[in-house]
Write a structure and sequence with these properties.
Elements (H helix, E strand, L loop, with lengths): L2 H11 L2 H13 L4 E2 H8 L3 H13 L3 E6 L2 E6 L1 H15 L4 H6 L9 H4 L19
Antiparallel strand pairs: 1-3, 2-3
Helix pairs in contact: 1-4
Length: about 130
């Protein structure tokens, strides 16, 4: 991955609402969600959501598909995987301690904490705990 693409992806991820959006869409899989449902789930206005979706799509982390009158958004798994791989392989040079921190079977993390937990956002709250408008 080129450094400029990595910086664009990392910059796009450097916002609480966008991280919430990625977490939500990762769980929905390839089917994705319509923009309206994403807005309701995250408590974002349509204009604010559009801004965040655009930033993530331009960074190669989301893909969209028009279906009838809806636009369906889903995570671009290859794009998300590429930025993770870039950080682990290119930046960290596969440093054993860094790679060990990313393992699901780490002995210092209780088994129940390693289970995939569904995304839940407190009603009207964002990643930083602020009320959405």
């Amino acid at each position: 991955m080129e450094q400029s693409k990595a910086l664009a992806a990392l910059s796009a991820l450097a916002h609480g609402d966008r991280l919430d959006l990625i977490r939500l869409l990762v769980q929905t899989g390839d089917g994705g969600l319509p923009a309206g449902e994403i807005a309701r789930t995250l408590g974002l206005s349509a204009s604010r959501l559009s801004f965040h979706l655009s930033a993530l799509e331009q960074a190669g982390l989301l893909r969209s598909q028009k279906v009838a009158r809806n636009v369906i958004y889903a995570v671009d798994a290859a794009g998300l995987g590429a930025i993770i791989a870039y950080l682990l392989n290119d930046c960290c040079m596969e440093h054993p301690e860094v790679v060990a921190c990313c393992r699901h079977d780490r002995p210092d993390i209780p088994a129940e904490a390693r289970l995939r937990r569904p995304f839940r956002l407190p009603e009207g709250q964002g990643a930083e705990g602020s009320t959405k408008t």
